[in-house]
Specification:
With 239 residues, the chain is an alpha/beta fold. It is built from nine helices and six strands. The protein is globular, with a radius of gyration of 17 Å.
Length: 239
């Protein structure tokens, strides 16, 4: 009797990440094997915690988890949201023999200081669904940065923009099966630009969600994302 393939899924969140942002994907992953989540130190909006870390620290954490999971499983699938999508892409780039499939949602490829500001203005003018984005009340519930903390975050934000550029350079050559979902209602990422960049990798299967937002998947698009993810896990298990 053929031994069943051992799968592990590593979920990598972005800034202000919450466990619920991946909808039902962790539950689906758990049915196929090990499911593990990596939250940045500032998850939930605790911005001050981010000041003690940086992109290289987060990459190191993802690398360590990827190394540990790959030693005990036949395959590790990376699932990244927002900044976590960039961390997943770069971790795969650095560990090409440990990753075969990447699943992305709202990847901030192509962001810059000016484009981010313009996108926020465009987003606020748009007719967005009531569940779209990160609301001010959400941030107030977990605490906004003080003016001093805000100033101290500028180098970190600059580092994140530079990291996005690094990912943009290596992305077209990544030899992995990539599934990407970008959203029309996005307060961080320009969906048109990010879609163009995601399509520069010929192995990428990219979709645009017209009703969901950067921080929330809404029905029926949530069910589409979950069904696509389950198909990927089933295909991986069948190999």
């Amino acid at each position: 009797m053929t031994e069943m393939k051992s799968l592990a899924t590593l979920f990598v969140h972005g800034i202000c990440g919450h466990y619920s942002q991946f909808a039902g994907l962790p539950d689906i992953a758990a049915r196929f094997g090990t499911s593990e989540t990596f939250l940045l130190p500032g998850h939930g909006g605790a911005f001050f915690a981010l000041l003690k870390t940086g992109v290289d620290d987060w990459l190191g954490d993802v690398d360590q988890r990827l190394d540990r999971l790959s030693r005990s499983h036949d395959e590790v699938i990376l699932v990244g949201h927002s900044l976590g999508a960039l961390l997943s892409l770069y971790a795969a780039y650095k560990n090409p023999f440990r990753v075969k499939r990447i699943f992305l949602w709202a990847a901030p490829l192509g962001i810059s200081r000016t484009s981010s500001i313009c996108q926020k203005l465009k987003y606020r003018r748009a007719q967005t669904p009531k569940t779209a984005g990160i609301r001010l009340t959400d941030l107030l519930s977990v605490g906004l940065p003080t003016p001093l903390e805000g100033l101290r975050m500028l180098p970190l934000l600059s580092d994140i923009v530079s990291f996005s550029k690094r990912c943009e350079i290596v992305y077209p050559t990544l030899p992995f099966d990539i599934t990407g979902f970008q959203v029309q209602y996005d307060e961080v990422v320009d969906p048109d630009r990010s879609m163009r960049l995601l399509k520069t990798n010929v192995r990428a299967n990219v979709h645009l969600l017209t009703e969901s937002s950067h921080g929330a998947l809404v029905s029926p698009e949530r069910e589409l994302v979950e069904a696509t993810f389950q198909e990927i896990l089933q295909a991986s298990r069948a190999e």
